[in-house]
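Any chance you could type out some protein's one-letter sequence along with its backbone structure tokens so I can compare the two?
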Amino acid sequence: MNHEDPVLLRTEGRIRHITLNRPRALNALNHAMVLRMGEALDAAEQDASVAAVLLTGAGQRGLCAGGDIRAIRHDAMAGGGTALDFWRDEYRLNARIARFPKPYVAVMDGIVMGGGVGISAHGSIRIVTERSGIAMPETGIGFVPDVGGTYLLGRAPGELGTHLSLTGEAVGAADALLCGLADHFVPSRELPGLIAALDACTTPADIAATAERYAVAAPGGELAAHRDWIDSCYGADTVEEIVERLADRGVPAAKQAAATILSKSPTSLKVTLEAVRRARRLDSLEAVLDQEYRVSSTAFTRPDLVEGVRAQIIDKDRNPRWSPAGLAEVTEADVARFFAPLGGGELGLGPGAPATR
């Protein structure tokens, strides 16, 4: 095993370990890592001696901060298409994880954002800690939640998913559990013991029981106390009305949410709201991933992605110049273009599509 590899693989007992190994980049995903993970899952499924897969991230700061958006921005500026190839394989990996026939245990310790959610929150056993910060922050970089994020957020209780998708707000362990993004809270100090105990397991039942044995009640979250105004305000039909309801609610947290939303890309906000609501009506993760690929492919060609990454990641001036600049300038026709069929360029995971593996 080469410790310079961005994905480290090893087997302990009957557990196949997959460790993301770019700690200086917060384990951000690139195309090679996605392909390597897919190969590792293929091998683990076919190997009868492997009972489960365990995903962790190297370093102390997080499992995975998402895709390598610097590279995506560079590709968009150059008029390339490697980002589309990356997303195609990444979304297929997300679907693969969700349907993996053996336990897939994801340790969502530290920062878990964007693509990091895609490789963890679709797993069968998802562990969070007091250090977990889970988010889909795409509207802040001129993009739209993907990697099955609209599927997950669209199925969160009430309008919690709408709130998280529009604001990009990060949630801790208790709120991740509430929203259905995780299964168990385990204090970070207990992770070495949990992992050692998992390595001693021999059956899927043992693995599930071990995760439950280490789990304890998560420290109190924030979202449950805000359900009233979240469900009421985010139940509106448009982003404009959502913002108006939040601003008028008379609750400081609601007013802050309105201000946060207004700092995001107007186009991304409107497309995100439509994507989450359409995702609720679709009957499978695969169908949602097909939809997300259409949306991502269009977002890749729009100026807000390049500008958003510039403002947040490259120059870090936190002053993006969105185009269009206001919600009123984004029409229904503008939004509809993001959902238009791609012809021969479809991802093709949903019903009637060719097998993905």
